[in-house]
């Protein structure tokens, strides 16, 4: 059976073209991290442009951060076209639970578009599961956090929601959970300092879209491999930090580590169990 | 009496959530510098989203760079809601004086929204005070510059305008002036090379919003502390530059220096007098 | 006769103010690279703002990546105003050939606006010449690539299209071609790893606009000098890469190298022939 690391090589071999409708805060990092992992990014959000652009791609990454009424229309058009064409489609419900517009947009997206993966922090995912939430801006509410103490219940929640949605749910935080409803990867890569960089979640969604696009037969494994890749890159990047460095240099070091990621590095560094 | 450095620790202790309606040129740096100084950023500009988002935050940073008709509507809605809730609100009138749309938007914002701080370069601030100006794009007109020669008149101008507006005015340049109409901090931190990085002013506005949000009883001191923090970070970052480095690396080094800023470093490095 | 390197010094001496209507993916890098090469950037895309902003500038850079219906209107208004005022105007037709909206917008822009330079990858330029194309997202179709084998035909194509358009055509890739219809610079600076950074093409368009604005009497030479500057910066930046570095650090190193570029460095490092 192939390893998580094999998914990395598949991305580099296939160079998946990924269409991103994403926020303007972290879009440059999403583009660079997609190139770093072996994908090819294109960004397009206008209703007049998105159907053509998504048609030439293999995957679609919808991220609702800094959404507006025009780009939301683009999200629905692109998502439906991608569904028609059988492309891999991922949702990153940034800030669902923090505003009615974000919550309602995310809930409507998961009703009308078939997603392969929904990836968010625990508060965003709970918001989608429950219909409302208490997301703290773009960060999870600490009261929601997945911990060693509540791990069994958290896994059960993620599995149940994945089964209900018929897609992969990826909840990321100090402990990451990735489940298709049957199996659940519990991943412990990463560093707490990654939370001091804007957009590591957005970057992961971009990378994950490339991984599931390039590994269509093993999307659960590919989604888990993407989480391990990002977390391990956070560890490798941190090990290269020097006296006086801070979050801006750390951002560069993480993307650099993804640029240098390969099958062997990931297989040796991935920290996960399957439950 | 507490020092400027104490304001830094207050930001790290309180982790103020700051809503930013800001330009897409420097938004990523604004988010990372807010995280670096101890705040938590969220960006949102759509009229349907801004009131909810600003309601969960403690401070609002309105920056009119790359404004458009939709985001301008968002600025007014967010500003009014933030005023209702008693949040700290800052205006960065990027390019006021360079176009009629920017000048008129900035003038209308200061009429309809109560700001705690207006922070800009001298040409932008003169434009607001006089109703028109000669801002050179996003840079001050050299004819307007605050210098040792015109310092007394410049201080008098800033104090008078601060008193008239009933808020703090922060004019930044080679010499920075921060006044509430009574006292004026004259600050000489910083490096001229900071002008070769896009958005150090936008970054300062983000940091300053976090500082005044986390230090509500001492907003003048907090605003001055933010200016010293940014300038001192420019000095520290510059000291770490190596042969062959340029403005892109310098940008990272400055944000890194803010990430590592603490009370002691600021109190030892701040260069200011109160007039 | 002046050298290519002399064009660099002209930019630093004149500090051309460049108005950019550009995509939100790479806009921060475009601003920083414009500052690095000695220009001064301002970004503005709203129909209500662009005419005033372009009026105070010397050059206009129109980049259609992440275009939308509002910004397209801004492109036409700004372009016409810049033409009226005799400003240098450049088009970067990002993704022309990848969607009908992009192709039609680019074709309409070259009909209604007089450009000094059109700069794109070979697939984008072929799309403009032929009216349709097969651009692979934001990258050229490999079937279109300029190679040593098809160099004579490629030069002939670029010269013919430049003559027909009455402007400079700059096709960039592994081999770059810059022609005014009479002469063609064939340039071999650069590194293949530059393709792993998002927006090196967008950055070049920004730099090139500064170069033609500051060298109005020698626009062909200035456009070629900009291409050599970007490519040479890619070589210098690469030479500074260390074990573990990747595309994010490389991005910073290239902008840094442009920050340090001068006449002598460019004249010694430029690799070109005139055909």
TrEMBL record, chains A, B, C:
GO terms for molecular function: ATP binding; hydroxyethylthiazole kinase activity; magnesium ion binding. Keywords: ATP-binding, Kinase, Magnesium, Metal-binding, Nucleotide-binding, Thiamine biosynthesis, Transferase. ATP binds at residues 119, 172. Its EC number is 2.7.1.50. It comes from the Bacteria. It catalyses: 5-(2-hydroxyethyl)-4-methylthiazole + ATP = 4-methyl-5-(2-phosphooxyethyl)-thiazole + ADP + H(+). Pathway: Cofactor biosynthesis; thiamine diphosphate biosynthesis; 4-methyl-5-(2-phosphoethyl)-thiazole from 5-(2-hydroxyethyl)-4-methylthiazole: step 1/1. SUPFAM superfamilies: Ribokinase-like. One of its GO terms (biological process) is thiamine biosynthetic process. Substrate binds at residues 43, 199. The keyword Magnesium applies. It holds the Pfam family HK. Its cofactor is Mg(2+). InterPro entries: Hyethyz_kinase, Ribokinase-like. Catalyzes the phosphorylation of the hydroxyl group of 4-methyl-5-beta-hydroxyethylthiazole (THZ). Belongs to the Thz kinase family. This is Hydroxyethylthiazole kinase. It comes from Mediterraneibacter butyricigenes. The gene is thiM.
């Amino acid at each position: 059976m192939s390893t998580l690391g094999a998914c990395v090589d598949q991305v580099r071999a296939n160079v998946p073209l990924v269409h991103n409708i994403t926020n303007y805060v972290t879009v440059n990092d999403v583009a660079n991290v997609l190139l770093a992992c072996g994908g090819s990014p294109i960004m397009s959000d206008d209703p007049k442009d998105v159907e053509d652009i998504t048609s030439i791609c293999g995957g679609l990454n919808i991220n609702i951060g800094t959404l507006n009424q025009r780009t939301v229309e683009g999200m629905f058009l692109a998502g439906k076209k991608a569904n028609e064409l059988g492309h891999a489609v991922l949702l990153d419900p940034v800030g669902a639970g923090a505003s009615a517009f974000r919550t309602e947009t995310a809930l409507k997206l998961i009703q009308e578009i078939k997603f392969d993966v929904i990836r968010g922090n625990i508060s965003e995912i709970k918001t989608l599961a429950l219909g409302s939430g208490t997301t703290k801006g773009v960060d999870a509410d600490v009261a929601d956090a997945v911990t060693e103490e509540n791990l069994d219940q958290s896994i059960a929640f993620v599995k149940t929601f994945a089964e209900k949605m018929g897609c992969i749910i990826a909840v990321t935080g100090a402990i990451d959970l990735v489940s298709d409803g049957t199996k659940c990867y519990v991943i412990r890569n990463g560093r707490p300092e990654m939370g001091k960089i804007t957009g590591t979640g957005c970057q992961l969604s971009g990378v994950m879209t490339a991984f599931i696009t390039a590994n269509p037969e093993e999307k659960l494994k590919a989604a888990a491999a993407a989480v391990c890749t990002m977390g391990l890159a956070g560890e490798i990047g941190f090990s290269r930090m020097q006296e006086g460095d801070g979050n801006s240099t750390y951002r560069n070091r993480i993307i650099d580590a993804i640029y240098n990621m390969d099958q062997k590095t990931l297989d040796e560094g991935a920290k996960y169990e399957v439950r």
